[in-house]
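Complex record, two chains
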Amino acid sequence: MTDWETRARTAEARVEELAAERARLWDEVHQLRAERREDEHFRDLARYMESTASWRLTRPLREVKRVYIGLRRFVDK
Amino acid sequence: MPADVTVAIPVYNGARYLDEVLTAVRAQRTDRTVELLIVDSGSTDASPAIAERHGARVHRIAKADFSHGGTRNRMMELATGAHVAFLTQDATPADDGWLAALLEGFERADDVALVFGPHEPRPDASHMIKAEMERHFAVWQGLELQRLPEDLAAYRRFPGLYTFFSDVNGCVARWAWEQIPYRDVPYAEDQLLGREMIEAGFAKVFQPQARVLHSHQYPPLRFLRRYFDEFRSLREVLDHVEPAHPLNTPRSIRSLARNDERWLRERGVGGPELTRAVAASYRHHAIRQAGAIVGTRADRLPRPLRRILSLEGRDSFTPYDVPASPLLAPAKTQPDSRPVEQTAAYEWAFLPQFYPARPLATEPHSGDVTPPWTIAWLVPPWRRGSGGHTTIFRLVRQMELRGHRCVIFVYDPEHRVPRSGHELRDEIRREFVPGVEAAVFKNLGDWDSADVCIATGWQTAFVARDLPGCREKVYLVQDHEPEFFATSAQSIWAEETYKMGYRCIAYTPWMADVLRERYGVHASWFECGTDLDVFRFAGPEGREREIIAVYARRETERRAVDLAMTGLIKLSERRPTIRPVLFGSHRSTRLPFPAEDLRVVSPQRLAQLYREAAVGVVFSLTTHSLVAHEMMASGLPTVELEGENVGSALGPPGELVLQVPRRPDAVADGIERLLDDREAAAAMARRARGFVEARTWDRAGDQVEQALREFLANPRVAAHA
C-alpha cells in the first residue's frame, strides 16, 4: 500500500473515531440534562407532597413510628 | 456643562446615613461625568451641610411642597444628565460598581427606559427582612415580558411582578421621562411609573450587580404603623385592597413564616434559637398583614384612629385619580356585549411567533456523512394508541440500532401534557416501542443542536424551522395533514409547512407523489414494517365466523368510522348474527345493532382479536393504515375503502385486501363476501402475509437512513474550506 493510501485510511479512521466521540458526548449531555429534569421533577413532587394537609396531619404518626423503630432496635441490641 | 448622569437624592433630616451614602456615590468608578443633585425639603439637621461638603448641587423646597412623584419630576427637570439615578437618603451603594452597573442596563437595548437594582439589608436588619428582601429580588433574575399572548396573560395575572420599579435604587432615561413623567402622587410613584412605561412598550431592566444597602428596622408597633402608611398609600394611588380571609390570611402568614424558617435552617440556625426566630417571624408577618388589611381600608376608619395608626401622623385619606391601565382593565365599548374570557391556553397562541415567515435555518456543512449522526425528533403530544407515534418511535429505535444518537422533544406549547420527560420516555417504552433509549424532553428549553432535526407533524414543522445548530432539517410526512381539517385555518397552516423548504421523507410512495404533484417537493419515501412477533399468522381454522374486527377510532375523522358503521347496519339487517368488535377509540359508541367495544388495548390483545375474527374492517381516507398491515400480518382477511392511497400501496382490489367503493351497501357486500367465500378470503390473507413479511421495520429503517444520508451528503449551503 502506498504512503498516501495509508495516510488517507488513517485519516478516515480518525474522522470516524471523532464522529463517534462527538455523537457520544452529545448523547451524554442530553442524558445528563434529562436526569437533571427528572431530579427537578421529583423535588417538586416531594415539595408538593410535604405541603399537603394529609402529610402534615399524619406527621405525628410518622414520628411515633420512628421512635418505635428506634426503641425496637435498642431493645433488640 | 451637562453631566452624563445625575445621581439624585431627595432628603429630609437624613443626616444619619447621608454622609455614608454620598461618600459611596463619590467613590463610584465610571468614565462618565456625574452630577450629584440633592433636593432638601426643609431639613433641620445637618443634611444640607453634608450634601454641600460632598459637592452636591442642593436645591431647597418647603416641606409642604414635597410629594414623592412631584418632587422627583422636579429633580428630573433640575438634573442635567441623560440618565438620572435615584437613591434615597438611607440607600448606600454597596460597592463602587453600582452606578456603572445601572448604566450598563441601558446598553441592553435602545428602548430601555428604566433600570433598577436590588436592595440588600443592613447588618442590623432582622432575619425576616433579610429573608424577605432576598426572596423579593430573586424574582426578577431572568424574568422576561415580551409582547406575546402568554406573557400578556401572565402580566394580567400578576402585573406587579413585571411593573415593579423602585426609585430607592433605580435609574430613569430622560427621553422616556419626557414622554411619561412621574405622576404627581404622594406615594407609589415608582410603581405607577413602572406600569406606565411597561404598558407604553418601553423596556425595564433589572441589574443584580447594582446593589444598595437599604432596610428599615423598627420595633413591632412602629412596623405596624409604617405598613399602615404604605398600604394606605397603595389604596389611594393604585386602589389596591389587601385580601382579608379567615383562612387564607393565616395561611399566607404561615407560608411567609415557613419561608423564613427554611431560610434560617439553610444558614444553620436550629434548636431553641430557631423556635424563637420563627415565633418572631409569625409576629412580624401577622403585623404586616394587619397593617396591610387595615391600611388598604383606611377610608372606613375615623380620622383620629388614622392619625394614631400612621407613623407619619397623617389622618387623611385621599384617593388619587390615576388613569386606568388599558392593558389590565380594558373598558367595555359596547354596552350590550359580554366579556370574552382571556386565557393564555388558546390552542393556536403559539403560531403568531412564527410570522413573518422566515427561511429554514440550517448550518453550512461539508456534506460529510460519517456516522453516527445526532438526530433530534420533534413530536406532537400523543394519546395511547396513536399509530403515527408508533411509527415515529419505531423509526427512532431503528436509527438507534444503526448506531445513531437520538433525542425526542415533545412540542407541547399549551402545556397539555402533565407528565415529565422521563415519564414520557417510560410511556414510549411501555406503550409504544420497548427499548427506545433516546432522552425525552418537554418543549425546547433543553434544545442544543443536532446533525438532523426531524419535524413529524405540521405544528412541529413551524418550530423546527427556526431551531439553530442543525446541518439538515427533515420533515417526516406520514399523512396529508391539510385534509385532516377540511376547509379551515389549520388546513392553510398545514399546507404552508410543505412550502418551508424541508427535505421530506414520506410514508408510502403515494404520499411522496402527493408532495411532488401538489407542492413541487421532492420527497424520499419509506414503507412501514409490522411487528411480526406480535402479529403472528393464523389460518382460517379456529376463526369465529361472525366476529368482525372493526377499527373504530372516532377521534380521527379520516378513518370514516361512520361509513363502516352504516355498512354494518346494512349487513346486520341481512345477517343479524354478526358480532362486530370495535377497537381503537377512547370514546363510547351507540349503535343500532349488537356490538362490543374493546376501546384502546395493547398490541398483544389486538393480535389475539385478529387471530379470532373472520374479517377485519379498517378504513383510511388519506394515507394507508398501519392497522391494515397488522391485520394482514395476522392472516385476517381485510376490507379497506377504494382509493389511490390504498390502491397504490396494496395493488388491485382483492389481491391483498378487499377494496370496496365508498358506500354503505358496498361495505356490507364486501364484508359478506369475505364471510361467505372463506377459501378466497384465506388465499387473499396468505398473499397479504407474504406482502407484509417483505416490509419489515428493518427495511423501513434502511429507507429512512438512506434518505438522511442523501440529504446530508448534499448540503444546501456548502461550508467553505
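Note: Chain A touches chain B at residues 15-16, 19-20, 22-24, 26-27, 29-31, 33-34, 37-38, 41 (CB under 8 Å).
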